[in-house]
Amino acid sequence: MTCKIAPSILSFSQAAIAEPTRRLMAAGADWIHFDVMDGQFVPPITFGAALVASLRTLGNTPFEAHLMTLTPERHFEAFAKAGCRRITFHAEATHHAYRLAQSLHAMGLEAGLAINPATAVGAILPCLDTIDLALVMTVNPGWGGQKFIASTLAKVRKLREVAPDLEIEVDGGIDPDTLPIARAAGANVFVAGHYLASQDDPAQGLACLRKLCA
Ligand code: DX5
Ligand code: ZN
Fold first, then answer.
1. Full-prediction pTM beyond 0.70?
2. Residue 8 assigned ligand-binding role
3. Can you tell me which residues bind substrate (predicted)?
4. Is 193 in the pocket of ligand 1 (CB under 6 A)?
C-alpha cells in the first residue's frame, strides 16, 4: 500500500492557519486532516465546517474531516459542502456505522471509520466491505501532542492481515520515531500534527516523514 502523509492542522494557531496549511499543501501533503471536536464526544471544542471551507481555496489537496463528535451524521452535509473528500467518524459515536458509511458513499464521499484506543478492532471488521479507510487512534482523541500508544498497533496488524488493500490510518503521536513502527505494523496513512507544527519549517518535517515511508 502506498504511504500517505496527512498533516493535522490542530496544533497550528487558528489565528494564522492559512500559511502553514498552504505550505503543507504545496509541499505535497496527500491529505489535510481536520480534527473536528464537539466538546461532547471529547472534552475540547475545535472548529466547524466554516474553517475548512475557508481553506479550500488554498489548493487541491484532498481534505479529510475527522469527526470526534456525537451524532456525526448531522455534520456530513456541512463538511461535504466545505470541500471534504473523506469524512471519518467514530464507531463509538453511532449504532449504525454501516449505514453511515453507505450514506457517505451516496453523497459521493469516501467513508472512514475510526476507533479509540479502548475499542476493539472487531468494531471495524463488520464494515470492511463498506468503508474506504480505517482510522486506528494511537492516542486518546481530543488533544494534539500526546504520547503514542504502541499497544494500539495490534489492531493495525489485525486489520492489515484481514484487509490487505484497506487504507489504514494511524492518528496521534506520529513522528520520525513512531512512523516506522506503525508502518511495520501495516499502517499506510499517517496523521501528524504536533510533530509538524513543532518544526521551524513544517514542509521540512513533511519531507522527513516522507523519507521514512520510502
Ligand atoms: C487527536 C487528533 C489527532 C491530533 C494529531 O484527537 O485526532 O489528529 O491532532 O495528533 P498529534 O499532534 O499527536 O500528531
Ligand atoms: Zn485526527
1. yes
2. yes
3. 8, 66, 142-145, 171-173
4. yes
